Amino acid sequence: MNITEKILARASGKTKVSPDDVIFANVDKVMMHDVSGPGVIAVFEKLKKTGMKIEKLWNPEKVWVAEDHFVPAADKISAQNVVLLTQFTKEYGVEKHFKYGMGQYGICHTLSHEEAMVLPGEVYVGGDSHTNTTGALGAFAAGLGHTDVAYVLLNGKIWFKVPETIYFKINGKLPDYVMAKDLILKIIGDIGTDGGAYKTMQFGGSGVSEMSVEERLTLTNMTTEAGAKSGIIEPDQKLRDYLAQRGATNYSEVHGDPDAQYEKIHEYEASELDPIVAKPFSPENITIARELSSVSLDKAYIGSCTGAKLEDLRAVAKIFKGRTVKIRTEILPAAISIFRKAMDEGLVKIFMDAGAMVGPPTCGACCGAHMGVLAKDEVCISTTNRNFPGRMGHVESKTYLASPLVAAASAIAGKITDPRDIK
Amino acid sequence: MKGSVIKYERDNIDTDVILPGPYLKIHDYNELAKHAMEGIDKDFHKKVKPGDFIVAGKNFGCGSSREHAPIALSYSGVKAVLALSFARIFYRNAVDGAFLLPIEIEEDTYKDISEGDQLEIETSKNEIRNITKNTTYKIKPFPELIGKIIAAGGLFNYKP
Lengths: 423, 160
Hints:
The complex is a heterodimer of chains A (423) and B (160).
Chain A: H1 3-11, E1 22-26, E2 29-32, H2 36-49, E3 63-66, H3 76-92, E4 96-98, H4 108-114, E5 123-126, E6 140-143, H5 146-155, E7 157-161, E8 165-171, H6 180-191, E9 200-204, H7 206-210, H8 213-221, E10 230-233, H9 237-245, E11 264-269, E12 276-278, E13 286-288, E14 299-302, H10 304-307, H11 310-320, E15 328-331, H12 336-344, H13 347-353, E16 357-358, E17 379-382, E18 398-401, H14 404-413
Parallel strand pairs in A: 2-3, 2-5, 3-4, 5-6, 8-9, 8-11, 9-10, 14-15, 14-17, 15-16, 17-18
Antiparallel strand pairs in A: 1-7, 12-13
Chain B: E1 2-8, H1 15-18, H2 29-33, H3 44-47, E2 53-56, H4 68-75, E3 80-83, H5 88-96, E4 101-104, H6 107-112, E5 118-122, E6 127-130, E7 135-138, H7 144-152
Parallel strand pairs in B: 1-2, 2-3, 3-4
Antiparallel strand pairs in B: 1-5, 5-6, 6-7
């Protein structure tokens, strides 16, 4: 069995599972946020109206809650949703609730690794499609809707069809100025936005071993854009060190067997990659950055679980140092802990010296919620994950998806720019 | 069940157009219905009738996990979406929450069905009758567990 099959077998009390088997897996961790949480609460209310008694959760210690989409509260309704979440976690005794304005908080997927909320070998589900991100920690991590999260909160398990796994073997090292974001955009461009549908996308090979944990998280994060059920990377010493720095040392790793089966294996030579951009209106609509050098921009957005981790911010600072932006540029670190590190390392000063705006952690404009959404015809380069019509604002705005390096170089030039071409 | 067709001849109809992001903070199901399909069809709310079916291409419901998407369609009156394929979270949200039926159709069926056609869907017989065109299409049976959850009326009513 491969790693995903072994995790799901262990979680469902079976010695062996195969693709297409339907199982009920015991869940180790479940997460909801200020959008899915109120949705789950609505499901609870509906269930209570049918006469169901809900007095407690299956295990409040395995539940954690983030505030990220519409926070700091964007308006009255968003504020009310945060109040609802707060009442819910109090009523049901959920202690791991990351509240904005009270120390650490941030985008749920970022907290999953920054706070080591999920550990290798675990089954983790979250009320958000980018839950796949956390698979870079060697866990099975999949997104669910409100009804399913409510079911997990009450029963501690959920059904899955055991997925086929597509293995992406990455050879060699990414060149300077090329990031994991470029690689995953290239992969999505090759296989399409349904190329991983219902499947697991697993990444391995020397190229992945070379990558930092944060860069690996960018790969698994965007498996969602290929329709995948989950993305996963097997644990190694780099991951163990990363988790140990966050106080997590006690877990039970799972690794694939030597004879593990994969539906398909795709190989990529990392050294041959160029900076890539996905044009509107799909993450699969890719081309190399240099071919878009005539595209003028109105705005650069550096944020989200995909593109505002510490190393993403370091990449931006590398380009911004000693330069100034030509277009509106917003930088929203993905969690308070990352914001603080960026400050301590002097990155925030570089951003402000360059003229960029630095704001609080939030999903913000990535999902068109608030904090810099786009107007009709506005053109944005963004380190986020989706560029569907209307994703970041007006349906006739345009978003180009790129790495933090490409977004930063483009912010300096005012048009789409390969970071290798910045003067 | 019987209804008429609203057809979108495109692939990858994502949840950001089915129910745009700014409405994610809303959890009043009838209010969500007012904004269904707003990202690609501003008139959807006016033209949709109770019992209607949506017909679309592949990978329907891709993108975000928002259950708001099947909720908005369901509370607009849509009873089923007929598509070449579905994104996984939309599919399980539709089934587990008992909001609507996600029915996979063949390429020929997709091409043959037109906007406004009257259809009768009989999942027990695995077929769709096109009353307007006087023809019948075969559909694949639901996978076993999905069929049981649908029959139970959603995941919470299903007893494993």
